[in-house]
Amino acid sequence: MRVFVIGCGRWGSLITWYLDRIGHDVTLYGRAGSARMQRFLETRKNDLLELPASVGLTTELAGVQEAETIIISVNSQGLQTLMDELKPLELRDKTFVLCMKGIEIGTGRRLSQIAEENLHPTNKVAVWLGPGHVQEFYRGIPNCMVIDSDDEQTKKRLVKEFSGELIRFYYGSDLLGNEVGAAAKNVVGIAAGFLDGAGLSSLKGALMSRGTREVARLIRAMGGSELSAYGLCHLGDYEATVFSRWSHNRQFGESFIRGEAYTKLAEGYYTVRAMLELGEKYGVELPICQAVYQILYEKANPAKVLEDLFARNIKGEFEH
């Protein structure tokens, strides 16, 4: 399969390395002004991995026209901008696979919705979601992930073509639920970091159980299956997000509480705003998201917010 990967960050580069490893013809794209891309062009390395000579490298977005499958791994809030850049190329009969997690602020659009609204109908859209860290995959530690799409044949083809010894793919059956769940777990990851920073790590069990129910209610209100919150894309990703030292969202939350600078991308920082917009739109209370928002955006006292969050009456939060 000829694959064009857009985005040379940690996930885009890992996906490039992985798909080349299992035998695909892969080209990695990054902007000419990207320091990460310039480093790849000069050394074929970043801080985590080295790309073999079989991988193509380019700063020309037009190269996407030669590919069958296009992998996108960029900041979720920048997806619409990328779609605008792709429109003049008038792409047809391609398969787009979105490998990022988020909800668009202001519109509440899921990432697959953004892609579908901007692409010609002959193109197919899928998502690649689930737990895993670049550091572990590159060391040969396997994991399970999910591919979902509204098009069954696209989903089956991608699961077959992308499965390997490092990643076993499961078929998703609820695109809406899996996308919302995947985006929301980053917010829970930040909340977990708050607990670590405040010396309250023992409360992560309560955070996980309540967080899953919170997201399940939202998914159901939006028309998806609430069981998706208990699958690989949300609860199944907690180990990699709530506990792992590699999790950007957890690390960001911990650093924020400790007053330390943190410069890496933490998608949950943006997603929490979109989640609250969805909660208001669909009439679903999201106390964990609200707490994270208050601490990050309203500069509320973290100790007071966390105390109130875990002291609240939770009877209704576990009812169906």
Give a short synopsis of this structure.
By secondary structure, the chain is of the alpha/beta class. It has helices spanning 10-21, 35-43, 79-86, 111-118, 134-138, 152-162, 175-197, 204-222, 238-243, 248-258, 268-282, 287-297, 302-311; strands at 2-6, 25-29, 56-58, 69-72, 95-98, 124-129, 143-149, 167-171. The mean pLDDT is 95.
| SSE string | EHEHEEHEHEHEHEHHHHHHH
The DSSP helix count reads 13
Query: What class would the helix/strand composition place it in?
Result: alpha/beta
What integer value in Å does the Rg equal? 19 Å
What low-confidence regions span 5 or more consecutive residues with pLDDT below 50?
Answer: none
> What number is the mean pLDDT?
95
Q: Quick one: overall form?
A: globular
Strand order of the largest sheet: 3-2-1-4-5-6-7-8
Question: Percent range for helical residues?
Answer: 40-55%
Biggest sheet, open or closed, and with what strands and sense? 8 strands, mixed
First-residue to last-residue Cα separation: 45 Å
Question: What's the β-strand tally?
Answer: 8
Beta-strand share of residues: 5-15%
Q: How would you describe this structure to a colleague?
A:
This protein has 320 residues and is of the alpha/beta class. Helix content is 46%, strand content 12%. The protein has helices at 10-21, 35-43, 79-86, 111-118, 134-138, 152-162, 175-197, 204-222, 238-243, 248-258, 268-282, 287-297, 302-311; strands spanning 2-6, 25-29, 56-58, 69-72, 95-98, 124-129, 143-149, 167-171. An eight-stranded mixed sheet has the order 3-2-1-4-5-6-7-8, with helices on both faces. Strand 4 (69-72), helix 3 (79-86) and strand 5 (95-98) form a beta-alpha-beta unit. Helix 12 runs antiparallel to helix 13 (302-311). The longest helix is centred in the middle third of the chain and has 23 residues, at 175-197. 48% of the residues are buried. The model has no long low-confidence stretch (mean pLDDT 95).
